[in-house]
TrEMBL record:
InterPro entries: Capsule_synth_CapA, CW_Biosynth-Accessory, Metallo-depent_PP-like. This is Capsule biosynthesis protein CapA. Residues 38-66 are annotated as: Disordered. SMART domains: PGA_cap. Residues 76-317 form the Capsule synthesis protein CapA domain.
């Protein structure tokens, strides 16, 4: 699935941006994330300003100031959660450089060498709705809007990728095959659905795969087979593990983006812990995922970074779970094929469905909640 070169609407991959990602790895709960804005020496903010989200009017365009590069062999990764372009977020398709689809947090997304989110929708205007409670679809321009927010790839291995049946799936695959960025975890057959996206970044070969562990109609009815279109499934653990081992044989860093967990539950279930351990043993450097609509714990499982739940990112409505509007972008720094730093830019999904970066008291509350979730995830703290 080749991806055309990204337009330079966003000034990305500069060392200020990369240094920002490294700074986020040592971000304390009391540190203001405005240090990563790329501007020089801002005046101290009042207590009210530190605790308030950034307003859309005050949000700068996604830019960065060129400075010396990171050394060869070191790359930064950024991961966001579930994204929709429907209902209150449909208007984000008409994004501008000054107000990208993901809002001001696009600055963090664009600053990474590689950034990824989950697109929780079919890409179609046709088809009959499947017999399920919720249905989501969007036009192909959603992929362009995400590209222009700094996203490098999306996962569509999720329980809403085929909400509009075979006709919708055919449209989705057509959009995937003509996408401006790689779309992972879905394909015309299982070879395509499990195929990793591989890219070399400053001498580091990165491989990225996606799959769904959610037991639902999509994983049952539209799971990709040898000659059958659909999504990559993590319910067939052996098949996914084999794909990770093949990716590891040709790449220095392997990322697996999963759809997994139970909605509303902020601690991972046994099935999540089981597949995470298998993927780590198979050579995955990073394992991240979504689906619960709340954030889960993150940290290290041996030498692998695991984030069990990234929560909602660009979200069409308010989920009926405590703290479901807590949001943000996880950052990971890898050097020499090993995770050497991690961080998190906290945000809050606002009334438009946009993740607005938090500062001060608001940021501390989200970061404290995330830290409190690590014990039930059975993970150790990641290096800073």
């Amino acid at each position: 699935m080749p991806a055309p070169a990204r337009p330079r609407a966003l000034s990305r991959h500069t060392a200020t941006a990369r240094a920002c990602a490294l700074v986020l790895g040592v971000l304390s709960a009391a540190t203001s994330v405005t240090a990563c804005s790329g501007s020089s020496s801002p005046a101290p903010a009042s207590a009210a300003e530190r605790s308030a989200p950034v307003s859309p009017e005050a949000a700068p365009a996604v830019t960065a100031v060129p400075t010396p590069d990171l050394p060869a062999g070191t790359i930064t990764l950024a991961f966001g959660g579930d994204v929709h372009f429907t209902e209150r977020t449909a208007s984000r398709l008409a994004a501008t450089p000054a107000d990208p689809a993901l809002g001001p947090i696009a600055r963090t997304v664009a600053s990474a060498d590689f950034a990824m989110v989950n697109l929780e929708t079919a890409i179609t205007t046709r088809g009959a709705a499947e017999p399920k409670l919720y249905h989501f679809r969007t036009p192909p321009s959603a992929l362009t809007a995400l590209r222009d927010s700094g996203v490098d790839a999306v996962s569509m291995a999720n329980n809403h990728a085929v909400d509009y049946g075979p006709a919708g799936l055919a449209d989705t695959l057509d959009a995937v095959h003509h996408a401006p960025i790689p779309v992972l975890g879905i394909g015309a057959n299982e070879a395509e659905a499990y195929k990793p996206y591989v890219k070399e970044i400053r001498g580091v070969k990165l491989a990225v795969l996606a799959a769904s562990q959610v037991m639902d109609l999509t994983n049952d009815k539209f799971r990709a087979g040898p000659k059958k279109p659909g999504i990559a499934s993590a319910l067939d653990a052996a098949k996914l593990v084999a794909a990770v081992k093949r990716a590891k044989a040709r790449a220095d860093v392997v990322v697996v983006y999963l759809h997994w967990g139970t909605e509303g539950q902020s601690c991972p279930g046994a099935e999540q812990k089981s597949i995470a351990a298998k993927l780590a043993a198979a050579g995955a450097t990073v394992v991240v995922g979504t689906h619960a609509h709340v954030m889960l714990g993150s940290g290290m499982l041996g030498s692998s970074y695991v984030n069990y739940g990234l929560g909602n990112l660009l979200w069409y409505g308010t989920s009926p779970y405590p703290h479901s509007n807590d949001s943000g972008v996880a950052t990971v720094t890898v050097s020499g094929g090993r995770v050497v730093g991690q961080g998190f830019v906290p945000a809050e999904v606002d009334g438009r469905g946009v993740p607005m970066p938090l500062q001060g008291v608001g940021a501390k509350a989200v970061l404290d909640r995330l830290a409190a979730l690590r014990p039930c995830a059975s993970l150790t703290p990641a290096p800073h």
